[in-house]
Structure formats: C-alpha cells, structure tokens
Amino acid sequence: MQSRPNISLLKNNYLDTYHAIQACLMQHNFSLLLPRNIEKQIFDIVFTAQNQKVPTKKLECNKDLDKFCNKLIYEYNSSVSAIQQVLEGIFTFSILVFFFTLLDVLFEKGVLMSTLITCILISIGYFISNTILRHKETSSSKLRSLLIFGIVLIPFMIMSFLKTKIPSLAVTFPFLDSLVLTLITGVISFLSYSILSKKYDLFIFIRRK
Fold first, then answer.
1. What is the DSSP string of 85-136?
2. Which keywords annotate this record (predicted)?
C-alpha cells in the first residue's frame, strides 16, 4: 500500500495546479474511492515540473484539464474488475446506511423505516448511474454533479410525500435493534474499505489542503 504524496513539497503555482487537478478529478470521479497511483501520478507530474522549472501553463494537463481528468478516470474505470465493483458497492451502501441510521439513532431514538427505504433507493440510483458512467469515455462533470444531487434529493422527496400517505413508513425500529443495525453496517463498511485499501490500493478521495 503506497503512502500519500507529501504535497508540502509543492510551492506556489505548482501547489495551486495540483489542487486544481484534484478538484477536477473529484468532479469526474463518480465514486467515493480512488486508487493511490492516480494521486501519485498527478503529484509526480507537478513535482517534476517544479523541479525542472517548467511553467504550470505549459503542462499538458493544463491545456485541457477536463479532458485530462476524464481520460485518467476512464482508463481507471476500464481496468476495474467485477469483484472490485461489488466490494465498492458493498462499501458505498454500508457507509450510506451507517451514516443515516446513526443520525436516526441520535436524533430519533431509533431507525425509521423510511430511512432504510431511502438508503436503498439512493443506492439503486447510484449503482445504475455509476455502471453507465463507467463505460462512457467522455461525460460532463456538470452532469455527474446533477446526477448526484438528483440521486440524493429525489428519494428524500418521494419518502417525505409517501410518509404522509403510508403510516408504516413512519414506523421507528426499537432503539436496541437500531443500534445493532448501525453497528453492523459500520463494521461492514470498515471491513470492505480495509479490503479495498489493502488489495486494490484505494482510498477515500478527499481534497487535501
């Protein structure tokens, strides 16, 4: 497992360029995860340019940043195995359920039925969109952002409406059962992430300052 690059070595415009590439990758990557070799690749490009005193404007990636990031993500997605996709799906679903059930446990004193259904609907929308976008060589970062917004917002809107029509959706599971569910999904998300991190060298891709 590779360590993350030491970005304190980058200075001024080169650090700004590195952050710009990171932000662009986040817009083009539909997953929470990214392989460390991509992060290392963009660091090496910028760090080498800094050492050789190549102006950032002359870097190939800066000529068309969207195209550069889209190509990196597409090439990576094309190499992802079916087993890795399944593990990523398990991780994404379990972390989603863990987060929302934890909120219910803390503020509602039990998990709501509507919360579980909402998580399932979000996951279905995410998996379908992710599967389609993985095989598209070019796609708009704005489209990805709109999809994420819609995938999260629409299930909540549907559940908010249905709860007023179907009383069973407002049912709250007992506190102990809710706590067990939250703990189980937390353990599953931790284990699946550990496997993805060690076997596939992935990490949760969050921009670093």
1. HHHHHHHHHHHHHHHHHHHHHHHTSS-BHHHHHHHHHHHHHHHHHHHHHHT-
2. Membrane, Transmembrane, Transmembrane helix
